[in-house]
Amino acid sequence: MIPVMEFRQFTEQQPAFRVLKPWWDVFTDYLSVIMLMIGVFGCTLQVMQDKIICLPQRIPGNVSEVEMSSLLHLESNTSAVLKEMSGRKTNLDLQQYTFINQMCYEKALHWYAKYFPYLVLIHTLVFMVCSNFWFKFPGSSSKIEHFISMLSKCFDSPWTTRALSEVSGENPEEKDQKKSSTSRSSTGVSPEEGSLEKTQSLRSIPEKIVVDQPPASVLDKKEGEQAKALFEKVKKFRLHVEEGDILYLMYVRQTVFKVFKFLLIIAYNSSLVNQVRNRVRCEVEIQDMTGYKYFQCNHTMAHLFSKLSYCYLCLVAVYGLTSLYTSYWLFYRSLKEYSFEYVRQETGINDIPDVKNDFAFMLHMIDQYDPLYSKRFAVFLSEVSENKLKQLNLNHEWTAEKLRQKLQINSNNRLELQLFMLPGLPDTVFELTELQSLKLEIINNVTIPASISQLEGLQELSLYQCSLKLHTTATSFLKENLKVLRVKFDDNRELPNWMYGLRNLEELYLIGSLSPDASKNIVLESLREMKCLKTLYFKSNLTKIPQSIVDVSSHLQRLYLHSDGTKLVMLNNLKKMTNLIDLEIVHCDLERIPHAIFSLTNLQELDLKENNLRSIEEIVSFQHLRKLTCLKLWHNGIMYIPEHIKKLSSLERLYFSHNKIEILPSHLFLCHKLRYLDLSNNDIRFIPPEIGVLQSLQYFSVTCNKLENLPDELFFCKKLKTLKLGKNSLSVLSPKIAFLALLTYLELKGNHFECLPQELGSCRALKRSGLIVEDAMFETLPSDVKDQMKAE
């Protein structure tokens, strides 16, 4: 007999695939096995036993001469003692009977009776192959293997248990305690009795087994990394599988095929099952070999085959009804969409996304096996869960001790921690209670928890291209404690809304690029709540001053506007900022000095760097700004300095570097309070002798000009500490340099000097490090002067 195990290869599959076999597939598999046994049993009987037994049939009126002579012979011998045989003699031998059986089997027996077991076997194998075809087809089997592999890892991952226990608000240990207390109360056992029973049961356990186990919810670093890799695999697998629906189509097609095959089998079997009979009349033209034409045959297995066929039809009917139910399930349910609504409600993880196409179909199939798989798998679709895991791994990597090693003192003399391109913000940051400044660069999904309130000394926060979320307690803390905020953004929509409520903020720095449309219509929410704001720095491609800046005009003292070359117009709002003491309008493509500036009577410093100024005739209006001490007009295209400059008598620092000035007016030096004068990188050829009037001058730079000589009056400015004369055409340095006893820095490099005057020795404060000159030129000094400069 053929063993059924020989057909295992038609349905063989990985054991893990059972999770994708709903109850109807399992049921039909068992039905297929029973039908297969029927087919194998019938085929075995066909092979091992005689199929048909035939005898010749006498037809009345058609008796042969041989038969007639035998009859006469019998009648003549009626007087014989006894008859030696009974029945009718046919005079056929065994070979003739075998031949007759074979001929009648082929000619007279109905084909259904002959091939019934083979049909059962073939149909059953087709059913078995069809039921598992989607597990074998290359386009679908690879997806299924990846899905099952990830599903098992997600199901067994410690992170899944931790995430589900966290959202339920209980630890696994607490749940066990609740269950135990519930069972005790239901059975009427008191806690004391329960503890006694527990103690007694523990005594029976060997001591080596009773050890302290770490909590199930605690992940080590390795498990955290494995869970992180799982998140990435699930994310990529989802993107890949949701693109198509090949799994769904394969399953639908094989189900529809089984239904049609069921209908076909029922149709032809029902009509042909009656053809399986015991007695079969056979008529074959073999008279020349046997002497007979008609035979009566007995189909030896007809009775058994008839019973098997009816049994087979019943099994096929059950199989078909199950397939019809499967078809109903496929076509009347939305299997290409899967909602995790029940998981979201049960677990509280509200960001689990719904899925579609093949991903959704496989999850529907999993639910037929065990819905717990989908629930645990959903944890790895949640962005919140992924962020929590990243946070956990981040805390493992960045310990408080490691963070303390990165602490530095910043330019504001605050203890600062700078973090760059991390996947998140470690919770260990909030253990650094000594922290005063926190700088975060290119960190996405930053969440500031309530524990930031532990950083009582935190006063400065810098966010460079970071997306930040705040806990309610954290927002309240920052409102009360934060003094300095720096935000670098790419879109004004990235500006945090909580920023506008920082009522104790003193300095606000906003840096970012805006789209052309946004730069024209930029809208900042009201800064009215920032009652303590004194410094506002705005660097962006602005075309006008935002109206919200006016809200803080009453107490704003420093305003810095950088528009990155975009032309800034409509500066009338500046008139309302009467308390400004420091104003920078840098790289704003200004062609004239804005008239609104002349209304700022409290202004002390003005910087118009990197604009397109060519004429500064309006400078005469600066005489109304009696507190103006610093004027920076550097990096422009100014051709000359008007004589009105003399009216700015309060100036102490003046920057005219990187312009196109050729002539210095003598009126410039009537600003007798000047302590700092920078005229470098111009086309100046001559310095008026009136420079000697500047008795307060401490810094003077004419580097990169076209000077050929220096007036002796320059050396009457005896308070000079820094003198820059490099990259000119000077050939002689006056011995009167000796008058500059306070000189500490002298730049002479890039001129045409032949030697240096020995009077440099009188500049006692000048050392070699402060003398910028060619080495060969330094060697022309007397040795005692060189030794003096080299001495510390």
TrEMBL record:
Tell me which Gene3D superfamilies the record gives.
Ribonuclease Inhibitor
Transport as a keyword of this entry, yes or no, is: yes
- Residues passing through the membrane, by range: 30-48, 115-135, 246-269, 310-331
Where mainly located? membrane
CC per GO annotation: cytoplasm; plasma membrane
Pfam families annotated for this entry? LRR_8, Pannexin_like
| Residue ranges of the region described as Disordered | 165-200
Bilayer disposition of the protein:
Multi-pass membrane protein
* PROSITE patterns per the UniProt record, alphabetical: LRR
Cross-referenced SMART domains, in alphabetical order? LRR_SD22, LRR_TYP
Q: Which domain of life is it from?
A: Eukaryota
Q: What is this protein called?
A: Volume-regulated anion channel subunit LRRC8C
What is the species of this protein? Austrofundulus limnaeus (Annual killifish)
**Which gene name belongs to this protein?**
lrrc8c
